[in-house]
Amino acid sequence: MRKRNKKMRILVIIICVIMVVALVLTYVMMFPLNAYAGGAPETPPPPDYGTSGDYDESTLTFPGDEDEEEEAPEPMLMITGGPITLDIGQSFAIPYIMNDFPPGTMPEWESKNPQVAMVTSDGILKAMSPGNAEIAVRAGQKRASVLVTVNELKAAHIIIVVDDTIRKTGPNSYEMTVGDVTRFTARVEPEGAKVEKIAWVLGNGNVASLSQNGEFVAEAIGQTQVTLTAGPLVDAVTISITESGVPLTTIWDYLKYGVIVIVIIVVIIILLNVLVQKKKKEKARQRAIMAKRRKEEAERRAREEAAYYDMRREAPEPRPAAKAGERSTMKVTGTAVGAGITPTEDKQTELERPLTLDDLE
Questions:
Q1: What is the DSSP string of 301-345?
Q2: Beta 91-93 vs 124-127: how paired, if at all?
Q3: How many other C-beta atoms lie within 10 A of the C-beta of residue 59?
Q4: Which ranges of the chain does DSSP label H, i.e. alpha helix?
């Protein structure tokens, strides 16, 4: 037992020694060796600013210089991309860059030629007519601009526009009466396209007259053609001129409408007649059913009356009624029913009443 305790003490002492050595080594590794040389660490010498005073103070660094704010960058305004080319009627959002401006600074847009190209306050460009225009933007003291070119549109179609008061008889044909005056106009598609000189040509000058501004006068009965030309583009309409008053075509239209109305009325009358006949047939059927029922009822009553009279003939003659003050007695055989009545007692009989249909049923 003693030997065991001694071994335990020796083991504890060895462990403690190992721990102390480990702590010492850790401390030595954490600090430089010159700290144990007995001398203080060397400090760097102060800067030599010279004795003559000829030195650049801008190279000196003083405490607090690191906290000073840097100089604010210069604002930048620029329209990106090159010159802009549009067709008439097109719109375009102008791209631009705007940096380092004070908060709340808004760009201001301007067109040097708004008849050609106009620009909105938010930089939306719209092409108005052929030509060139300079679009500028300002913000503070900065300015930027871009050149805009609007191309001419080529006309694809030219159309004769006829007044709505002129009667139309076909896709490109119209009807007028003698003495009517109207004015034709030209419409170019697409809108805003440039066309060559416009010219009006009249086919039959004996029935009408036509000026170069499109004024047409119907002068006599007949037919003519009005043609509009603009370079390679052509359009034409046919004009039929009739006498004053109601034209034959109008009368024919009235006749057509009248025939349609008459047909509708005839159809309605036929439908009403069919409905009336159907209703009459239904009433006749109802009357036949009622007559049949009445006949069956009369036959039933006749049979009942015949059966009643047959029964009366077969029934026995009723016994004469007893006179006043007399008593009618009858002998009852069998067992009498009822208290105080015996078979030998006399009983007043009642008069026999005639039979009825209810009794037979």
A1: HHHHHHHHHHHHHHSPPPPPPPPTT--------S---STT--TTS
A2: antiparallel
A3: 6
A4: 2-30, 248-314, 357-360
Residue 87's φ and ψ, nearest 5 degrees, are: -100, 160
Report how far residue 222's alpha carbon sits from residue 176's, in angstroms, rounded to the nearest whole number: 10
Which residues face 238 on adjacent strands? 173, 225
What whole-number distance in Å separates Cα of residue 131 and Cα of residue 192?
A: 13
Partnered with residue 97 across adjacent β-strands are: 78
* Tally of CA atoms within 13 A in the half-sphere of 115 that contains its CB: 2
Residue type for position 214: G
Backbone angles phi, psi at 261, to 5 degrees: -65, -40
Separation of alpha carbons 139 and 109, rounded Å: 9
Question: What is the total residue count of the chain?
Answer: 361
Chain centre distance of CA 159: 35
CA distance linking residue 302 with residue 292, whole number of Å: 15
CA dist., res. 199 & res. 214, Å (int): 9
Residue 159: strand pairing partners: 187
| Kind and range of the H or E run holding 188 | strand 185-189
Per-residue pLDDT of the chain (361 residues; tens, 9 = 90+): 566 777 777 888 888 888 888 887 777 666 554 444 444 445 455 555 444 444 454 454 555 554 445 677 888 899 988 899 998 888 999 999 889 888 888 899 999 999 999 999 899 999 988 899 999 999 988 899 999 999 887 888 899 999 998 999 999 999 999 999 999 999 998 877 878 788 999 999 999 999 999 999 999 999 999 999 998 899 999 999 998 765 555 667 778 788 888 999 999 999 999 999 999 999 999 999 999 999 999 999 998 888 888 888 876 666 665 555 555 454 444 444 444 444 444 444 444 455 555 555 4
